[in-house]
């Protein structure tokens, strides 16, 4: 298994495999990987004849095999791309399982003139190829490429390129600031960049503009953590907490944000019980309606007594971190354990 950086290096050396499995959360990044191979193997003038795309949600194994077996027209290579290949997901229905089993066998006999690229998207940012048994098996007969987050310098540069491709210059400091605030997913990054470009309307982009339009990505992570707690998904919640601590190493800030989120849920529950609707709550907290809908949904998974207890647990942990020399990460994980014990 390799990453995007290694893939780029291999393509530059003209080391291109017969088949690839692409996976990750960022479809825009994956599409760049697909274009990288296609543009280096298929003649642009013959693209319509030697480049076939199949929808992985609806295609059959016969469709895939027929596309791969057809000889290239006036060229050495042809490419077949199966996008959003549902049959590569770890848990699928019987139909997709059958396609996967056929693909696994067929890859050993893939024609030398065909480059087959299949990709699928993870559902969750805590997913990775090592957790997928199908990917482990495919890694023995195909080249698996995991499109994880880009390294910092490259990530910042690519964010600048997103603005430039839309005819807008952004300063390096502002680009880095934007990159740290937005979720690390280029589908989202492009939408948020479009929003800022439209808002600034030809003016220079400033940090104030970014603050007005982009919420902190750390706030999104805390929201996700509370959501996992509300769904009683303990293992995923611990994984996310560990990821947050690894990224920022700011234990006091994280626990304060968790406590404030429970406090907000407590307040919203009281407002809901007093007859306020979602629009009223959205206006009070100056939040988009769809965010308030999610918050109200979270509220409904706790009662008042539970929310009070959750705030107490956070406060107790915060005091321990301030007044004693305990292992902070271990104490935070223990806090999460105690939260899941609340009935």
Automatic annotation (TrEMBL):
It catalyses: DNA(n) + a 2'-deoxyribonucleoside 5'-triphosphate = DNA(n+1) + diphosphate. Residues 219-338 form the DNA polymerase III delta subunit-like C-terminal domain. Its EC number is 2.7.7.7. GO terms for biological process: DNA-templated DNA replication. The keyword Phosphoprotein does not apply. It is an enzyme of class 2 (transferase). One of its GO terms (molecular function) is DNA binding. Keywords: DNA replication, DNA-directed DNA polymerase, Nucleotidyltransferase, Transferase. One of its GO terms (cellular component) is DNA polymerase III complex. The keyword Transcription regulation does not apply. Residues 20-145 form the DNA polymerase III delta N-terminal domain. NCBIfam families: holA (TIGR01128). PANTHER family: DNA POLYMERASE III SUBUNIT DELTA (PTHR34388). Belongs to the DNA polymerase HolA subunit family. This is DNA polymerase III subunit delta. It comes from Clostridium sartagoforme AAU1.
């Amino acid at each position: 298994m390799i990453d995007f950086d290694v893939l780029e290096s291999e393509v530059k050396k003209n080391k291109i495999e017969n088949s690839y499995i692409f996976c990750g959360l960022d479809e825009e990044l994956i599409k760049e990987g697909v274009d990288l191979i296609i543009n280096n193997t298929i003649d642009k003038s013959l693209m319509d004849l030697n480049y076939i795309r199949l929808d992985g949600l609806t295609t059959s194994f016969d469709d895939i095999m027929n596309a791969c077996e057809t000889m290239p027209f006036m060229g050495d290579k042809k490419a077949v791309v199966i996008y959003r290949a549902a049959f590569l997901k770890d848990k699928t229905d019987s139909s997709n399982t059958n396609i996967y089993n056929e693909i696994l066998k067929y890859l050993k006999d893939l024609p030398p003139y065909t480059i087959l690229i299949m990709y699928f998207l993870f559902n969750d940012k805590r997913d990775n190829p090592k957790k997928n048994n199908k990917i482990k098996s495919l890694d023995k007969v195909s080249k698996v490429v995991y499109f994880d987050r880009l390294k910092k310098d490259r990530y910042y540069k690519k964010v600048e390129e997103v603005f430039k491709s839309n005819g807008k210059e952004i300063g390096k400091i502002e680009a880095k600031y934007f990159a740290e605030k937005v979720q690390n997913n280029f589908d989202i990054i492009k939408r948020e960049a479009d929003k800022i470009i439209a808002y600034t309307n030809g003016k220079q982009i400033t940090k104030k503009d970014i603050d007005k339009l982009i919420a902190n990505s750390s706030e999104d992570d805390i929201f996700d953590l509370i959501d996992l707690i509300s769904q009683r998904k303990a293992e995923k919640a611990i994984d996310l907490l560990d990821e947050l601590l690894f990224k920022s190493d700011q234990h006091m800030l994280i626990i304060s944000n968790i406590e404030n989120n429970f406090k907000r849920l407590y307040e919203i529950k009281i407002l809901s019980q007093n007859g306020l609707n979602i629009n009223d709550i959205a206006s009070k907290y100056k939040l988009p309606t769809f965010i308030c809908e999610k918050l109200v949904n979270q509220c409904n998974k706790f009662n008042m007594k539970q929310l009070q207890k959750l705030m107490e647990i956070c406060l107790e942990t915060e005091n321990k971190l301030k007044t004693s020399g305990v292992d902070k990460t271990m104490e935070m994980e223990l806090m999460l354990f105690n939260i899941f014990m609340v009935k």
